[in-house]
Structures are given as C-alpha cells and as structure tokens.
Amino acid sequence: MQQVLRAVPSAPLNSNASIIACLGEAAAIYAQNKQRGGASGKKGTRYEDFFIAHKVAEIAASHFANPVTHWPFLGGQTRGFVDDAVLSSPQKTEYYQLKNVANISWTAGDHPISTDFHYQYTLATHERQVDPRTTLVMSSTEQVAAMQASMPAQISAHSSAVYFPYSDSLNRLVLENEALHGPLIALSKSSAPTKDELTGVLGVLIIGCMNNPEGASIDAILRSANGCVPSLLRVEGLIDEPATLRAQFVSILAQIAGLTYDVSKGFFSWSGFGMTGVLPFSCRDPQFVQFQENVEQVAPTTFDGFEELLP
Q: What top-level branch of life does the organism fall under (predicted)?
C-alpha cells in the first residue's frame, strides 16, 4: 500500500520583522519592493510558471522512488531576496531566482545577485530554517556553466546554478525538451502518454499553482489541479487512496486471451492485439464500479467481447 504523505506545516518564512532584526530596515524595504515588483509583473504564462509547475511534477514523481513522510510546501513570488520560488521541507529550504535574460552577472547592478543570495542565506539561518540553499535558474546552458564557474566564494557553499529551458508556449516547451518528460509521464494517468497528454499534465499543474497564489503543499496543488481538470493526472499514491478491484471482475479478465491491464496509476488501462486504451474515469469513480458490474454481468470470454463493453 502506498504511504500517505502529510503536508509540511507552512510557517511564514522571511517575515518583515525577521528581516529588520537580521539585516535592518533598508533590507526589509528592499525585500518588500522586490516582492511587490515581482507580483505585479506576474501576468499570464511565464518562465516562472513553467518552472514552478514542473517542480511540482518532479517532487510528486520522486516520492514513488523515495517515499517521504511529508509533502513539502512550494510558493512563488515570496517575500525575501531570492523570491521567485521557495520549496520548504523537513530536510531543507530551497530558494530559487530565475533569470531568462541575455546578459547576467553575479556582481552587476545596484542589487547584485550575489548580495541577494548572501542576504537570503543569512536571513534563513537567522530564522533557523533547515539547510537553506539558494539556486539561480537560467534558460541557457552556456550561462549556467559561466555562472557556476564564476560564483563568488561568499555564496558558493549554499548556492548553485541550474538550467531550465524557456519556450514561448507550453506546447513547444514539452515538444522540444524531452528531458522534462520523465516527471510528467509519472504524473500522467497513462502508462505511455502522448506528448499532447504531457502538455496537458504540465498545463493543469500550472492551473493548480495559480489557484494557490500564496503557495501550498504539493498535495494541495495536485488536488487543486485535479479538481479543475479531473481524469488527467494519475491518482494512485498522489490524490486518492488505493482502489480495490472486484474479485469476480479480476477473475473474468484473467480468462480473456491476449488482454493485459494495469491500474497502478489509479486508472484502468488495457491493451491487446496491438490496441491500447485508458478509461476516462478513475478506479475510484462510480462509473468504474458500473463498468466492473457490466463486465461481471456479461462475462466476456474474448477480447472482442471485452471491447464491446468499453465506455
């Protein structure tokens, strides 16, 4: 049985009082203005939206290989100095700054990135956050390599530079970046989803994030996404408790030559004789109970007979 994860309590991070106590009033004013500017600029689908939604997919998918006790908290445009996204769990606190620009430097400008990273780590340590980390996310692999190589020693112990691709559309992002597919495949209801289905998965995760503008635990984001577009995401081990198939239903299917099926994602998928499909409702849906009853009543003995009962 899948382990049920609990949400991490979402205690406020980087409060104004903490910033003043740790770094002074000028830093608090800067953090407040930074948050206000980021929030006002967050209109429509942007680089940050793609990244945060995919981070939801990565975290949700990772627990299948390494189950954890609590779902982490994820928020965007938070108060602080590294503010595009924050991921908080009992193991660590990760701050992300995203830069999709042509030119970038650790030390340029009135408020250098290196200073922001140093302030954020200092503040997180002051607040006794668990293992705080600061990460710069960029849309160019060349920039990532250059920034990693030129990282100031003052922040190198807790900082890193990573790549996340940019695209002007959600569809192109998925179509052109197969490296992003793994977590999306894990969250899809299908065992072998098409690229269109993967685009749909990432799209509904963006909706789930946008429905939680103040941030939320990963499971809350998943439930919100699933509530907007049901029967798109897998449910087994993520959103619902495991479902149990009826014994007579299982016995009948076992006698049909050439038929294989899978319910590991919380949806009934089937294949046989070169054909595959997934029912449009989950195994927890009353329609699936009715489907099982129909199979039990007719008791098909051939693959063709089974196909006739598919909704």
A: Bacteria
Q: Which two tokens stand for residue 209?
A: 């994030």
Unique residue bearing structure tokens 């979402």: 10
Nearest residue to 54 via CA among 174, 216, 161, 141: 174
How far does the chain reach from its first CA to its final CA, in angstroms?
29
- On average, the pLDDT of the chain sits at 86
Sheet with 275-282: list strands edge to edge: 260-262, 267-272, 275-282
Closest by alpha carbon to 135, among 83, 95, 183, 81? 95
Spatial separation of the C-alpha atoms in residues 111 and 207, rounded to whole Å: 32
Spatial distance between the Cα atoms of 257 and 278, rounded to a whole number of angstroms: 19
User: Could you tell me the two tokens for 187?
Assistant: 């969250």
Q: If you count them, how many residues does the chain have?
A: 311
User: Model-level pTM greater than 0.85?
Assistant: no
Percent of the chain clearing pLDDT 70 (strictly above): 84
Is residue 109 a contact partner of residue 123, using CB atoms and an 8 Å limit?
A: no
CA distances (Å), 276 to each of 110, 258, 273, 279, 285, in order?
58, 12, 9, 10, 21
| Cβ–Cβ under 8 Å, residues 130 and 122 | no
The CA-atom distances, in angstroms, between 16 and each of 13, 25, 80, 84, 278 are 9, 9, 9, 17, 50
